[in-house]
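Q: Got a minute? One more chain.
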Amino acid sequence: MNVMKKILLIVFAGLLFFQANAQEKWSLQKCIDYALANNIVIKQYQINTEYRENLLDQSKNNRLPDLSANISQGFSFGRSLTIDNTYDNYTSSNTGLSASTSVLLWRGGTLNNTIKQRDFELKSSLENLQKAKDDITLNIASGYLEILFSKELLKVAEAQVEQTQKQIERTRSLIEAGKVAEGALLEIQSQKAREELDVVNRQNNLQIAYLNLAQLLELDDYSSFDIEIPEMPVLKAQATLATSENVYQKAVEMRPEIKSAEYQLKSYESQLKVAEGGIFPTLSASASFYDQYLNTSQAEVPGFVDQITDNHRESVGLNLNIPIFSRLENRTNISNAKLQLKNQELELESTKKDLRRQIEQAYTNAVAALKRYNANTTAVNSMKESFRYIEEKFNVGRVNSVEYNDAKTKLAIAESDLIQAKFDFIFRSKILDFYNGIPIVL
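A: Always. Here it is, folded:
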C-alpha cells in the first residue's frame, strides 16, 4: 500500500511538473534577458570587448622589462687554430650560457599614450556592446507588441463571427415570424463566411508574429513558445509626451553610440601623441651575463665549474637611440593620425545628428499615433452607437441585411484601427522613454 502511494505521488508530481513546463509563458523581460544572453551579435561584441581588454593589458605590460636566456652548444672538427697559434687536427666543443634583460625608460611618452589609446578603445567597445543590447531590446519589444497586437485583432475577428452567429439565429426567428425575407439569412451567412476567413488570416498573422519573435530569440524549438499577456497601460486622450528637445539633451549625454564616438575621438587624440612620440629619442637600459665552457681533445682543459667561474662576465648599459632620418615615416604617421582625428570629429558630429533625427522622428510618430488613437476612439464610440441603432432596426425588420452588414463591417474596421493606433502609440512612446533612459516595461 505504501509503495502504491509513493508511485502515485511520483506520477502526480511528474504530471504537475510537465503541466507547469508546458504552460510556462515568456514575459517581455524574460525575452529580453534571454536574447541578451544568447544573441550571436551580442556574443560577437563581447568577444571584441575581450580582445580590446587584451590589447590594453599588453600595452601596460610593455612597461615591464623583458628577460631572455640562451644556451648554445657547438662542435668543431678538423684543422683548427691551437693554443700555440698553430694549426692541428683536433675536436672541440663549446658550451655557452647567457641571459639578458632590457627595459624601455623613455620613448617620447608613447608607452603611456598607447595605454590611454587602448583604454579609450576598450571603453568605446563597451559602449558599442551596450548599443547592440539596446537595439536587441527594441527589436524584442517590437516583436512582443506585434504578438499582442495580433492577438487583439484576432479577438475582434472572433467576436465578429460570434456576433454574426447570434444574428443568424435572430434572423431565422424573424423569417419564421414573417418579418424578413429568406434572402437576409443568406446574406448574413455569407458575411459570416467572410469573417471566418478573416479569423484564419489573423490566426496566420499571429503565428508569423510568434515566429518572428522566436527567431529574434534564436530559439531552436519554438513549437510550444508563448508569451504572457501583460496588463496594458490605459491611454489617456491627453497623454503627456516629453518634448523631443528635452529627450535629445538627455540622450546625448547617456546614449552609448554618442559615448562610443567620444571615446573613439579620445583614442585618436592619444594615437596622435603616440605618432608624435616617434620623433623623440629612445632611452633604454640593459643588463646581461655570459658563461662559456670549452672542451678540446688537443690538451687538458680546466673543469666545467672552473671554466664557468673564470669565463663569467656581466654587463649593464644605457642605450640612447636618436632618430635622424626614418624615410619620412614619422611625418607620415603624424599626418595620418591627424586625418583620422578630424574624421572622427566629423563622425561624432554625424552620430549626434543621427540621434537627433531619430528622436525627432520618434517624437513625431508618437504624437501622430496619439492623434490617431484619439480620433479612432471617437470613431469607435460613434460607430458603436450607430451600429446599436442599426441592429435594433434590423431586429424588427426595418433595416435589410446589407445595411446591417455594412454597419457591422465599419465598426469592425474602426475597432481594428483603434487597436493598431493603441499599440503604435505604446511602442512609439516606449521608444521615446528608451531614449530618455527609461527601461522598456509593460
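A: Residues 3-22 have pLDDT under 50 and may be disordered.
Q: Perfect, thanks.
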